[in-house]
Each structure stands twice: as C-alpha cells, then as structure tokens.
Amino acid sequence: MKTMASITKSPWIIHYDGSSCNGCDIEVLACLTPMYDVERFGIINTGNPKHADIFLVTGSVNEQNIPVVKQIYNQMPNPKVVVAIGICATSGGIFRDCYNIIGGIDKVIPVDVYVPGCAARPEAIIDGVVKGLGVLAEKQAALAKGIADPTVSGAYRYENGTYDGDGTFLPEEEGDTVIAAAEPQSTDDENGLRVKPAMTEEQEVDD
Amino acid sequence: MAKRTIIPFGPQHPVLPEPIHLDLVLEDETVVEAIPQIGYIHRGLEKLVEKNEWPEMVYIIERVCGICSFGHGWGYCKSVEGNLGVEVPPRAEYLRTIWHELGRIHSHLLWLGLLADGFGFESLFMHTWRLRETILDIFEETTGGRIIFSVCKVGGLRKDVSNETLDKIVVRLRGLEKELKELTEVFLDDVSVKNRLVGVGALTKEEATSLGAVGPVARGSGVSNDVRQDGHGAYGELDFEPCLEEGGDCYARCKVRIRELFQSIGLIAQAVSKIPDGEIAVEIKGTHPAGEFVGRMEQPRGEAYYYSKGSGQKFLERIRVRTPTNANIPALVKTLAGSDLADVPMLVLTIDPCISCTER
Amino acid sequence: MTERKDLTQEIIFIEAGDLLAAVQDLKAAGYRLGQACATTVGGELEVLYTFEKDNILTNRKIKLDAKHPEAQSISAIYPYVFIYENEMHDLFGITFKNLGLDYGGKFFKISKETPWNPLFEKGDEN
Questions:
Q1: Domain interval for residue A71
Q2: Label partner for C20 (CA 20 to 30 A): which of A83, A136, B51, C43?
Q3: Which phi and psi angles does B208 have, rounded to 5°?
Q4: The CATH number of the domain where A153 resides is what?
C-alpha cells in the first residue's frame, strides 16, 4: 500500500475537549500561538477530522461524549495517532470519582501518547505531539508494508488498571485485563470501533 | 413559507474550543429558533463535596474552569469564610484582588483572540495570545502555575508576593498597556472588524434585564451590575466605575471587555500602591462550617454565586456554583433567534461562553 | 472606603405554598433573581432562591418531600429561571408545575438519573 511520505513532516491536528475544566484546552491553543508556535514543526490545527493525523483529546469521557470521540477517531484517515492531554484524559484525574465521569480516553479509543499534568504545560503538550510523530512514522511504515492494522506501539486498552506514573499502565491483575486495541478497523465492521455518526443528521420539517 | 431545516451546531466545531450543542432551526439562512443542550462536560464535581473535606474542596472548585480558576477558588473560600465568620487579613485580600484582576486580563485577552479567530483574522488572534503570555508569565513567577495555581485557601493565601515583585509587575503591565492600545485600535476601528460586529445580536437594556444577563453582556447593554462594587476583597478601597456601553451588540460587548482590560491594569496599579504589610492567612482550627452562606463574585464573564451549606462536620452538605455563562444562556438564545446563520459563531462567542463552568 | 455589602444577607424559610406570592413581592420591590438551587437534607429537599438588589442578597427557601418533589415554577415571574428549574429537574427529580420552557429531562444528559437525590421515586408524571 502506498502512503504519503510527508505526513510526519506536516501533521495536522484536531482537538476535542472531552470533559475537562478547559485548562488543558487553552494550553493546547496556546501551543499554536507565537510563544510556543508548533507551526514550526509543520503542525496545523484543523477542524475537520478527515484532514487530521493527530487527535488531541483533553478531559475524560462521559456517557454523552463517547459517540463524539469515537466518531472523530473513526473519521480520521489511517495512519493516525491519539494523544491524551492532561491527567483527566489519562485517568479521570481529580474528577475520577464524579458520577458522570467514566475515566480516561483509553476506555474508548486506543491512546498512543499520554501527557500528564493539571493543566498540562505547553512544553509537555509539544513534547507529546512530537512523540506522537514517531508513532505516526512507525504506523505509516507498517501500513506501507501492507499490515492491515497499523497499530504498532502503545495502543492497548486496559479495562482495569493503574497508572504507575512513568507513562505505563499496569493491569490490575496479571494476565487478564489487557485488551489489545488492535481490532481490525475495516470501514464496515459493526463490532469494531466504528459507530454511526449521530451528530451530523439533518432533519427537515415540513410546514 | 420557506423550508425549515434544523442544523446541529457543535459539539465539535472549529470556533468552539469547548463542546456545546445547539439545534438551530433555520428558515433559509435565518435562524428562527435555537435550542441549547448541555451535558457534554457535566462532571458533577459539586458532589465531590461528600468525599473531600472542606479545606480540600478548594482544589476541586478551582477546576470548575481553567480560565477563571483563581476567581472560582476565591469565590469558594469567600463563601466558606462567610460561613465560618472568618475575617481574612487585608494583605491577603489585596493579593487576591491583584491575582483576580490579572485573571480578568488573561481571560479577556483569551476571548479577544478567540473572537478574532472566529471572524477569520488569524494574525490578530496570534498577537492577542502573544500578549496574553505576559500575564501567564506573571502567574508562573508569583504562584508556580500558569493556569491553575491553588494559592487561595480558606482563611487567606498560601503564598506571599514581595512588594518589589509587585512593583515590577506594574511596570510590566504598563508595557503591556502600550501594546494593547495598538491592538485595540484594530478591534475597535478596523472597518472589516466593525462590519462583523456592529449591529449584530443587539440586546436592549430592557431585554438584558428581563433575561437576567450578567457581566459584559449586561454591561454592553447599559445594565450596571458589577459585583465588585459590593466592596469585597480590596475593591472597597479602590477607585473604579463599571464599564458601560449602550449599543447592546457584539461591538458593545467587545468594547466593554477591551475597556475592562485597561481598567484592570489600573486597579492592579492602585492595589499595589495601597497594599498593606502583614499576615497573609488566619489559622482556622477546630471549627467546621455549620451555617449557610451565599458568596458572590465578579468573574471575567460576569456574576457568579457560591453557596455553601455545612452541618458542623468535616464534609460540607452542599456546594453550589452558579456561573456567569449559565445566566447568559437565555440572552444567547434570544439574540440567536433572527440572526443570520453565518453570524451564529459571533453571537455564541460574544457571550464568552465557558461551557466547563456552565456544566460543572 | 465602601462597606462590605456581601456580608449582610438573610435566608428565610417559607411554606412551599407561599412561594409565588413571596417571589412576586420581591419582583415588585425591584429584586432580580440571582440563582436557584436544591440541596438534599435527610429525607427532604431544600430549594433555595437567591435574589439581589443593589448588591444586597436575600434568600427564600422552601422544603419539599424528597420522594415525590413537586413545586410551583416561578417562570411566570422570572422567565430565565428555566435554566435552574430544568437543572433541578434533571439532577434532583423536582417537578416544576407550569414551567415556562420545559426540556422534559433533556437539559443535562447524564448517565444516572437524579444523581443528587437518591430517595427519588419515579412517579407517573408523564
């Protein structure tokens, strides 16, 4: 399979705020502005999931935003990288005990890079995105070799587990809780991660 | 009759840094009705009061919103202090006022940048956010954090700032003021910017009152409702008048916020010149809040309420935060009806929505 | 130096049946509705309404049964109360009669019904 060679030279990002205090969101935006200026890495912020290579998620997931997060993820073309920004996106953070919070983004979609912090600092976010570029290159190479699923590193989903603070998740009990997120992402697999777009319906009302 | 269409707006939308969902009922290109729906970022953080003791709860309330985080922390402390009947040392009240006003400058600059981005003027967005970093640098130097810094605690503050540092902050703000003047000329006098803002989404004084609008939205329509005038913090000893405009449109709301930028710089300079020496906190030992108190604050987005109810236990019975965006939703719905679809982003932006505040 | 006005505030308990009349009086006296919220206290719900005039706060409070909470909506007097009343409906299960703009429980979309009121018993309200 042929892939574009230039993706890692100019990755486009899309940002979605899950259920955060918006501290991390404004730091993501601050990265784009002159003081931090991620555009020097060729990174451009886009609002269209189909243009995006890197998905930056801030905040944790709740019942209502699961379909939105999944939908954005599924609309992004392969290869793609997910960066969870801030402790809420990583594990639920300070809000993990809230009744309307399910947990980190990795409960819903595979995450490649975790950026800790409350709020995550712009330097850390940039570092995370640059790490994401490495993952993107790996996935791209895998895709070029014809490996159907380009998920090659980091992208595992843990149902139960704890964050050990060094950037790795530890399963709660050995051997039983690690679920590889490497489900085939063919476009019409109803059991995979793809969901029916719920928010783009247009209704017409006749008067 | 024209065909009616419903267009969903959000939750993921290029002009929205945060998710809100609006169902826009259109007749051709005109919005006839807008139905907001919230809950995308509802966390239920007020309920964490059952699991966190009241001195710790301040960390959670600060995370109601990452933009006016200091103000939320102060509002919570004010409510619990009122509940306990604690008097905070004057130096702490002055420092709180200074940080809160710095927060207002940072919030308004953030908003101006988003507005510029919203009407498609990207270089203006970049410049505004470049200037905003000055404030974040001051935050980082004085507190250690850029966005959320947890310096406020019930009874006072955790950190003092030396008078020399405060003097230097004023010098830097005077420098910022010069750059801001250049920037505001673009926002207020540029023809193409005016085209997007003047006359859009006008709200009369009567409408603003009857819809319960607060903050710059109300002041842009000539309603004087600045909570800072109630004399809390150091505001009682500082000289200022609320910034009022008469137009009621997007331009007036923008102008109110721009005038408040300069007002805040003036307030900080006044506070620094008057700040007394002394303690920065009182110790609270052996008592727990046992009554009820409603604290009120003027956040960058407007009036906010903090209700605390205790029962003499370590855990409060209830904390309730009513944030300004919440109060401005009726005004937003009203201005959206009858607007052009292309103006919807402008209208949503000019109430300065903070969804994370609204849903908590 | 301005006096601190925020420290003077009153909280007055009233009968749920007297709510509309009390709110009407406050409106006539030029007060504006600041906020409304509910609290679960034992087997009861307390609904607190905060009013403001010239930076002085006054509060009115009513008590409701937590199992089947029902109150009169004040949206005829202060239409913008719909935000708070819909919120209380979704979080506490309180039914407000004659609610101006009723979202029918769809204002806050949350996974758990009436998370703030564990005693709530769903009646045949619809």
A1: 12-180
A2: C43
A3: -60, -40
A4: 3.40.50.12280
